Amino acid sequence: MKSLFAEFTGTCLLVLVGTGAIVINDEFEGVVTHLGISIAFGGIVTAMIFAFIKVSGAHLNPGVTLGMVLRKQMPFSQFLPYVAAQCSGAIVASAFLALLFPNHPHLGATQISVHWPSGLLVETAMSFLLFLGILWVAFEARPKTWKIALVVGAIVGIEAFFGGPLTGASMNPARSLGPALLSGTWNHFWIYLVGPFAGMTLAAFACPYLRVSSSCCEEGC
Prior knowledge:
- It contains eight helices and no strands.
- It has a single domain (2-210), classed as Up-down Bundle (Glycerol uptake facilitator protein).
- It is mainly α.
- The chain is globular.
């Protein structure tokens, strides 16, 4: 139960801070800036990993949870409870933002500004790189919490900076679900399901062939 509460809380804060930065930027004439939004996403992911990695693994993302199941780092029986906790946290965060900013049209929902095939490719590729980075640092011989948090947070921030203008840089079905549900913004929502799950599944199977030393959980998987 502690792990599910950690996933709920971590994902809630991720969506609250990340999409909250988008909403505040819209409401207050660009005060946060695109760079600031990217830093907000990367920073909150870093903080949540520090806070919850020893409790739940700090997945904060259904795609990451699926990847961990595929890498045999957790039983499949935990997949749906983790996803339910993550999605619930995202919905609660978006509901809070909807109360604060009732007139905002999309509450930070992810939307593509390119043709959908390009959007799907971007989300898949970014999710692939994100989970590959997670595997490389999380399954070193002696993984360090600070290293995992900083590396994964940096990847999220950089990808948000690069991919934000293209697709909103979701890489996370729960992150996209909360704002979409509360604002009714479902445009190309399927991309934010297929892309992250596909990218992280590919990374889970590709990592052993791209591994460095003991990364990707080469022992005991």
